[in-house]
TrEMBL record:
EC number in record: 1.1.3.8
Name of the protein in its database record: L-gulonolactone oxidase
Entry's localization field: Membrane; Microsome membrane; Endoplasmic reticulum membrane
Taxonomic lineage from the root: Eukaryota, Metazoa, Chordata, Craniata, Vertebrata
Family annotation (NCBIfam families): FAD_lactone_ox
Chief location bin: membrane
Organism: Accipiter nisus (Eurasian sparrowhawk)
Signal peptide start and end residues: none
Pfam families noted in UniProt: ALO (PF04030), FAD_binding_4 (PF01565)
Length: 415
């Protein structure tokens, strides 16, 4: 980790040759896909806590190295908040936008859509101010930059007034949710649902702004003793008897998700949740109108292949379309469909057939993979998926002609 305090120190560090070493951007290794693999040098701007708040515009400019967990607290001191957040905030601002982190809400875009300006240190040492009015093309590329355009020194976020969220989770069925999907999308500002494979069971989750006082139904016994320790043990047992997975999914739905649950808290505490398990995941975005067809195909594939098992949940979220070149939501409202296979006590679970089946369904319906999650796409695939891919490549080659910011994964993406 190369820790610096100023942009000038970073510029000097980039000029210093180190044999066989690439320059990776701090904060990008938060997902499953090796955008910044082990062995790369990572760097940060001090603690990234220096921020400039414009209360009139409700905007905040922060260093790229600031963790969103720290930014959330700082914004609350000014009566502000980010309109949407992913599940995890222990990640740097530059990394969050660099991989296209998302949450849910058909009226909300992926997190990079909240970026209104940024500064970029290129491989040549030039510092570029970027926004929709200055270096506009570079801005559209850099809002989801994959760490390969340069160093994001600062990010300016458009904020909203601080707010609390009322979260309501209740049981339903896959048939009901898919048949009334538009109703659910309109009923809640931040709607998502969890499907429990090998069953019809679904947990519907609504999150909406509220003026009610904070309250919580959290319980150590149910959240940890049962929802973590017991589940991990049973998943480990299922590695020897895979057919148990179907029973585990149904049992834990009945145990933890078959009743209505409500929580109220400041927005970021509802958006964020603890990812307790070691896990493998895939997360693709498909056109929203393909949601029902794709999910029913995945359900049928599992039913037709009893030896292929899937851990719960399949998490289904939604996002507004945007104009960010490498956004999975580029020019279309999208449904993100996240599948998961846990690694109980660190043990890998066979998943190849499930992975390939899921990827095939996603590709069939025009899917685009989350950049921070596992996928098998090559440049040829990505050129078909992303209309603006050639424009991004042109910007990348202009800003980093020698490939200073490339790694093995990115070489697969761009060559």
């Amino acid at each position: 980790l190369a820790l610096t305090n100023t942009g000038e120190e970073l510029r000097e560090w980039l000029r210093t040759p180190e044999t066989g070493e690439s320059r990776g951007e701090q904060g990008l290794d938060q997902g499953q896909e090796p955008v910044v693999p082990l062995g790369w040098t990572r760097f940060g701007l001090g603690e990234g806590l220096r921020e400039v708040v414009d209360k009139e515009k409700q905007q905040v400019t922060v260093e790229g190295g600031i963790f969103l967990s720290d930014l959330n607290v700082e914004l609350s001191k000014h009566g502000l908040a980010l309109a949407n957040l992913g599940a995890v905030s222990e990640v740097a601002a530059a990394g969050v936008i660099g991989t296209g982190t998302h949450n849910t809400g058909i009226k909300h875009g992926i997190l990079p859509t909240q970026v209104v300006a940024l500064t970029l240190l290129t491989a040549s040492g030039e510092i570029l101010e970027c926004s929709e009015s200055v270096n506009a093309d570079i801005f559209q590329a850099a809002r989801l930059h994959l760490g390969c355009l340069g160093v994001v020194l600062t990010v300016t976020f458009q904020c909203v007034p601080q707010f609390h969220l009322h979260e309501v989770a209740f049981p339903s069925t896959l048939t009901e949710v898919l048949d009334h999907l538009n109703d659910h999308l309109q009923r809640s500002q931040y709607f998502r649902f969890l499907w429990f494979p090998h069953s019809e069971n679904v947990s519907v989750i609504y999150q909406d702004p509220t003026n009610k006082s904070p309250s919580s139904s959290a319980s150590w016994w149910w959240d940890y003793a049962v929802g973590y320790y017991l589940l991990e043990f049973l998943l480990w047992i299922s590695t020897f008897v895979p057919s148990l997975v179907c029973w585990i999914n149904r049992f834990f739905f009945w145990l933890l998700f078959s009743s209505r649950v409500e929580n109220i808290a400041i927005s970021y505490k509802i958006f964020n949740y603890e990812c307790r398990f070691k896990q493998h995941v895939q997360d693709w975005a498909i056109p929203i109108e393909k949601t029902k067809e794709a999910l029913l195909e995945l359900k049928a594939a599992l039913e037709n292949n009893p030896k292929m098992v899937a851990h719960y949940p399949v998490e289904v979220r939604f996002a507004r379309g945007d104009e960010i070149w490498l956004s999975p939501c580029f020019q279309r409202d999208s449904c993100y469909m996240n599948i998961i296979m846990y690694r109980p006590y660190g043990k890998n679970v066979p998943r190849l057939n499930y992975w390939l089946t899921y990827e095939g369904i996603m590709k069939k319906h025009g899917g685009r993979p989350h950049w921070a999650k596992a996928h098998s796409c090559t440049r040829k695939d990505l050129e078909k998926m992303y209309p603006a891919f050639p424009k991004f490549c042109s910007i990348r080659e202009k800003l980093d002609p020698t490939g200073m910011f490339l790694n093995t994964y990115l070489e697969k993406v761009f060559y």
